[in-house]
Design goal:
alpha/beta
């Protein structure tokens, strides 16, 4: 406050400081409420194996590294992915789930990377892909072992560059995301058989 001060200016300054403090407190309350509402279902189990899973989730959650979850169908891979996201610094940003095994190659590319208007028949408007939708958050690529060699090449480029080029477009779009992937397949064996790229693995 610079002297001589105007009483009106001083009153305005005090009011703004109070509003700022109130907004910060409200923001913190909202974050805590959001954390409770969006918390994933708890992982149940007291066995040594489940305790090890919990420890691994805690270890990798704070990192920004890509994570591969393997296991048979129905063992809770998506629950683990949700737990990793919920405990990560990205938890207040989106978790975008993509089932790679449920979509044919062309549709999967459009879903992942987006497309420009006119990129293919029926593409009337620009569509942002799942990587762009996951901006600031996590993208969960379920059944990553099902993707075609062509999509594997495109995925590798996106993971390396952190940029997405929409189908029918030429301009790369910078994206900030973390990848968690899952599969019931033995990717190491697929790499040996030439069915999965070693550099992507």
């Amino acid at each position: 406050i610079v002297k001589p001060f105007d009483p009106d200016d001083l009153s305005l300054l005090i009011r703004r400081a109070g509003e700022h403090r109130s907004l910060r407190a409200e923001n913190q309350r909202l974050k805590e409420s959001l954390a409770q509402v969006t918390a994933p279902p708890p992982l149940l189990g007291e066995s040594p194996g489940m305790k090890r899973v919990q420890e691994l989730i805690t270890t990798v959650a704070s990192s920004d590294a890509s994570v591969l979850i393997t296991g048979e169908s129905g063992t809770g891979k998506e629950l683990v992915a949700r737990a990793i996201h919920a405990r990560s610094p990205r938890r207040f940003n989106p978790l975008v789930v993509v089932n790679c095994g449920a979509l044919p190659e062309g549709l999967l590319e459009s879903e992942l990377f987006g497309h420009e208007a006119g990129a293919f028949t029926g593409a009337r408007a620009r569509h942002k892909g799942k990587f762009e939708a996951a901006e600031g958050g996590t993208i969960f690529l379920d059944e990553i072992g099902e993707v075609s060699p062509k999509v594997q090449v495109d995925l590798l480029r996106v993971l390396d560059e952190k940029k997405v080029t929409r189908l029918g477009g030429n301009t790369p779009v910078a994206v900030d995301f973390r990848v968690v992937a899952a599969t019931h397949r033995d990717l190491a064996a697929m790499v040996k058989d030439g069915a999965f790229r070693e550099d992507l693995y």
